[in-house]
Amino acid sequence: MNSSSLWQPFKLGRLKLPHRLALAPMTRNRANPDGTPGELAAEYYRQRAALGLLITEGTQPSEDGQGYLTTPGIYTPEHIAGWAKVADAVHEKGGHLFIQLMHVGRISHPDNTPHHRQPVAPSAISAEQDMFTTEGPKKTPVPRELSVAEIQDVIGEFRHAAASAIAAGADGVEIHAANGYLLHQFLAPNANQRTDSYGGSIENRARFVVEVTQAVAEEIGADRTGIRISPAFPLGGLDEGDAEAVRAQYRYLVGELAKLNLVYLHVHHLGDDELLAALREVWPTAVLVVRYGRERDGIDADIVTGLADLAPLGRYALANPDIVERLRTDAPLNDLDPSTLYTGGAHGYTDYPARTGV
């Protein structure tokens, strides 16, 4: 792909990126049982450092934040030491690392967490999702509703996780407010039926997301803080209402977040281009856009139209450690093996072949 728009350098906060591609966050389930990144993680991210900006897999900020088996954390000294190896490997190859902070909320099962407690959420409403455990698939249980005091504790967990990411040598963090997880749950009326200051109105449902983001930006700097949203994505059993309700919620939310001057807004886009254009208009810094089903020849489409500044790659980058060079030279791509996405070990993780050394 020789589109000139993809190969223009870009300044992202403190970072100078060589082009407009990036690595999208993708859960790989390869962490050690205690949540420390596995020994292969540094190699996995190092191989893909040519993408410039690498956004890691979702990383829990606390024990309550874990939903899936063998996902990494960023809240203990051991986690920091593990991520430091990843950051060093990426930096040695000239890349930059943002750790995605992901609290899953109700998308969890006690079998998968260190403390085996009931999951937490804005309201005591089950997601009714299948969750893989060591004993096979189980339904996510009814979560426990967070008290107002506990909400403040969770905000503190995000603050601590962000500081831990920087201590590990990461260049920044991405707050995961998308894809059906805790922050997204607060935005969705069918998951958030609170009657206090964190529920009910558009403003109240957005409050938790805004307060988490304020805390992280205060802790590590707005120019090292990004956020991901996914308007209208029905993941994790969420229903955000009709198109007008979704537009109203996200225009307000993004308008409030824009005041913080974060380094980027990352939109996991379902297809409402009118909303995307409205968000782009009010956002003061970089916009990243990922679309499901995007074909190779459409990677640069949102950059060409001005809707995005960067194009994060998911499965193309997963299966092709040298994806930047392959796209630059119009080389063929490796096929993805879906059976190895979450299986652990090197196979399907660090053993996809590169055409040249990476």
From TrEMBL:
SUPFAM superfamilies: FMN-linked oxidoreductases (SSF51395). InterPro entries: Aldolase_TIM, OxRdtase_FMN_N, Oye-like. Residues 6-333 form the NADH:flavin oxidoreductase/NADH oxidase N-terminal domain. The keyword Electron transport does not apply. Its cofactor is FMN. Gene3D superfamilies: Aldolase class I. It comes from the Bacteria. One of its GO terms (cellular component) is cytosol. Keywords: Oxidoreductase. One of its GO terms (molecular function) is oxidoreductase activity, acting on the CH-CH group of donors, NAD or NADP as acceptor. Belongs to the NADH:flavin oxidoreductase/NADH oxidase family. This is 1,2-oxophytodienoate reductase. It comes from Micromonospora rosaria.
